[in-house]
Recover the amino acids of this structure.
């Protein structure tokens, strides 16, 4: 009961802050906030690498944050990121990584034989998880910013609602109808029925949202992108679960009362945001 109360209190504080940051922070300040979040995620990811010394983990987070800050300062105009070659390369790498991640999850624990003992691979996996997420958040925030400051914010909120509704739908449908395990050796609670229920719930939310908010500029491909994003968000969650299971960790940290760590809250979004940005901006921008 105490944990539930903590979750509710924390959510009631964080959700308004997230929405305020999305809609009212200019791109540069928004980027700084995402850098802080990504640095904390890097601090948590260092456990998966096998780094337990706190000083080593802090250095990892600080170095990652400095690299992201340098990346952000290298862009001349944060409201025109959709044509930046480096952004395109990073989002493309993110798309490839999440295809690889799906294979790693589906074949776990066999796949762990190839990466569990490799520090370099686990560092690379962390970079490919967090860096495209940062770029995806920044580039979505910048969409048509010169026309309307809120368009990009609506895009990000749309993806968040997709992920949250899919997660909620999967929970209830899984408990009611779940029989076939999705990835039993990674997360025994997730079922195929739950994922389908989550997709149905997300579809309803997506339809209501697109009717209510007149900023979704690619309705022809919106359904396709949304379905892919919902599926990939499930594997974003499963991927973090896979690394936690391999490392013997229950929560990535206890930074967020009642919710675990930063990675525990954004695991689905680390997959959904760069994939949505990659699909909509790289392939369906016309």
């Amino acid at each position: 009961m105490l944990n539930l109360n903590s979750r509710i209190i924390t959510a009631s504080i964080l959700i308004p802050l997230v929405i305020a940051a999305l809609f009212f922070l200019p791109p540069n300040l928004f980027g700084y906030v995402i850098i802080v979040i990504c640095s904390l995620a890097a601090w948590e990811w260092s456990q998966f690498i096998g780094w337990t010394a706190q000083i080593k983990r802090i250095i990892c987070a600080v170095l990652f944050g400095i690299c992201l800050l340098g990346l952000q300062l290298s862009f001349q105009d944060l409201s025109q990121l959709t044509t930046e070659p480096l952004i395109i390369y990073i989002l493309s790498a993110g798309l490839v990584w999440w295809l690889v991640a799906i294979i790693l999850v589906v074949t776990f624990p066999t796949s762990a034989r190839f990466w569990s003992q490799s520090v370099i691979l686990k560092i690379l996996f962390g970079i490919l998880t967090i860096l495209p997420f940062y770029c995806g958040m920044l580039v979505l925030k910048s969409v048509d910013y010169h026309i309307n400051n809120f368009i990009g914010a609506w895009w990000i909120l749309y993806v968040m609602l997709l992920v949250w509704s899919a997660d909620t739908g999967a929970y209830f449908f899984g408990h009611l109808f779940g029989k076939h395990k999705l990835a039993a050796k990674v997360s025994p609670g997730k079922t195929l029925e739950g994922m389908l229920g989550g997709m149905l719930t997300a579809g309803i939310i997506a339809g209501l949202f697109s009717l209510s908010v007149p900023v979704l500029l690619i309705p022809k491909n919106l359904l396709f992108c949304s379905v892919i994003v919902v599926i990939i968000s499930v594997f974003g969650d499963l991927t973090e679960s896979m690394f936690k299971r391999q490392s013997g960790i229950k929560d990535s940290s206890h930074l967020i009362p009642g919710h675990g760590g930063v990675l525990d809250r954004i695991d689905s979004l680390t997959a959904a945001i760069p994939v949505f940005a990659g699909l909509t901006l790289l392939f369906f921008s016309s």
Notes: Residues 101 and 134 are 18 Å apart (CA to CA). DSSP finds ten helices and no strands in the chain.
